[in-house]
Structure formats: C-alpha cells, structure tokens
Design brief:
Layout (H helix, E strand, L loop, with lengths): L6 E14 L2 E14 L3 E5 L6 H8 L7 E6 L2 E2 L5 H11 E4 L11 H6 L12 H11 L15 H13 L5 E5 L7 H16 L3 E6 L2 H4 L4 E6 L2 E5 L3
Parallel strand pairs: 3-8, 3-9, 6-7, 7-8
Antiparallel strand pairs: 1-2, 1-4, 4-5, 9-10
Helix pairs in contact: 4-5
The chain binds adenosine-5'-triphosphate and magnesium ion.
Adenosine-5'-triphosphate (ATP) binds next to strand 1, strand 2 and helix 1.
Length: about 230
C-alpha cells in the first residue's frame, strides 16, 4: 500500500460556541478529522447545522472556542495574526455562500483582488488573472460588471477569484445553492477538473445528490461532524 497523502488540515476536538443573549449556541462540537492533499470532500447537513462555521474555521476566517487546528502539521493558534493572514491569502481560496463580488468593479478587477492583498501584486499577475478566467470560461466577460452576469457566471467569477493565487485548497460554501440544476452540474464539473489537476477541494452542500459526486463526505448535524459513507 502507498503512504497516505500528506495532511493539509487537521482538526482536533474543535468546538465553536457563540453567545446568544443569556444563553449560548454550540455551532460546532468536538469536531476531529484530517484533510489530506488531493482530497475531494463534501460537507453535508441541514440549514443551521454548523457547515459555514466549520468552513470559516478551515479557512482561518474564524478561530475555534476549544480544540486545535493544524495546517501542514503546524498549530494555527501558534501563528501571529499576520502569519495567519499570509497563509490564508497564499494557500487557501474561499468561495463564500453569497458570492461577495464587488458590484462596481469589472470581472477582471474582482478576480484580481486577492493578488494585491499583500502590497504589490506578483510580477505574473496579469497571466494569473488570464489563467483563472480561462479555467472558469469567463474570459469573454472580463470587462463586464457582476450586475450584467447570470447567477452561474457570477459564481464562476467568485471561483476564479478564489483560484487566482493558485491556492493548495479551495473551500466553497454552498457554491451551487442558488443555481439551476444544469448550471450547478457545470460548476460541479469544474470542481472535478480542478481536483484532477491536483487541487484539494472542500464543498458545502445541502444536497445529497451533489455530495454523492465527492469521494468523501462529512455530515454535520447540530454541530456534530461524522464521517459519511455514501451520502
Ligand atoms: N455569529 C454568530 N453568532 C451567533 N450564532 C451564530 C453565529 N453564526 C452562526 N451562528 C449559529 O450557529 C449555528 C450554525 O450556523 P452556520 O451558519 O454554521 O449553519 P449552516 O450549516 O452553514 O447553515 P446554512 O445551510 O443555512 O448556511 C446556527 O444555529 C446559527 O444561528
Ligand atoms: Mg451556511
């Protein structure tokens, strides 16, 4: 048997508790799992079960209340805010549940945003933008604004933006939630292709049909994460 692929992210008994007036919400309880290089994983669960909370922790957008997160074997809590922002910007691409495109900017300028996150953009910035737009087949709309695009096209632009730094991991929170079946299938094919090219991909979905296309499924229910077989 070949050795397992290197680990990218590892969660050890991670919990997230939010204050809610006089009480608290346990959005995530004791979550433990390892994500390895090259995985193609779906996170499945009903509304309010904790999927976005989990994704935000995987993408360093939020910190756990309890437990530990490791990136490349290194405890994330031991990184400074600056180091964490650096890893997030360079290694993790995030597609938000709402697309979060800036309406006044063109498609091209939206895709370019993460490149200037750390001061000056890289020398090959223009080439990276071209590659990201081509991957999602949006080159022909580069000079349009988000308001002039369909929902599926906006989603593809959000994916191009997440890919422009050529991150190791792509995290997408419900990327097909607002799309019709045909457009959702096209986005799913795009993820399959990106995974075939070597990217580690994690996608949140409500849909067990969509989750069935992934090699691994995690189920989240009332903040508890379990490993799924077939969805
Ligand atoms: N900032 C917050 N403050 C308080 N409670 C929160 C906060 N964010 C999320 N929650 C609560 O945590 C729980 C999990 O929320 P989360 O957004 O992770 O769910 P979800 O599975 O992504 O749902 P959906 O499928 O509707 O997007 C919910 O009960 C929610 O109300
Ligand atoms: Mg959510």
């Amino acid at each position: 048997m070949s050795a397992p692929a290197p680990e990218v992210l590892r969660l050890e008994r991670v919990g997230k508790r939010y204050p809610m007036g006089d009480t608290v919400v346990d959005a995530l309880v004791d979550a433990s799992f390892t994500l390895r290089e090259g995985e193609f994983m779906a996170i499945l669960g009903p509304s309010g079960s904790g999927k976005s909370t989990l994704m935000h922790i995987l993408g360093f957008l939020d910190s756990p209340s309890t437990g530990q997160v490791f990136f490349d074997g290194c405890p994330v809590a031991s990184l400074s805010e600056r180091q964490r922002a650096h890893v997030r910007a360079e290694k993790i691409g995030f597609v938000f549940q709402a697309f979060n495109l800036l309406p006044r900017l063109t498609v091209r300028a939206n895709v370019a945003l993460p490149l200037s996150y750390h001061g000056s953009p890289p020398a090959d910035a223009e080439a990276r933008i071209d590659r990201a737009l081509a991957l999602v087949d949006m080159t022909h709309r580069a000079h349009h604004r988000p308001g002039e695009l369909s929902g599926g096209q906006r989603q593809r632009v959000a994916i191009a933006r997440a890919l422009v730094n050529e991150p190791r991991i792509l995290l997408a929170d419900e990327p097909t939630g607002n799309l019709d079946t045909k457009t959702a299938a096209a986005i799913l094919d795009l993820f399959k292709e990106l995974n075939r090219l070597g990217r580690t991909i994690v996608v949140v979905t409500h849909s067990s049909e969509i989750a069935g296309h992934f090699r691994r499924q995690l189920h989240v229910r009332d903040g508890r994460v379990t490993e799924g077989g077939a969805a």
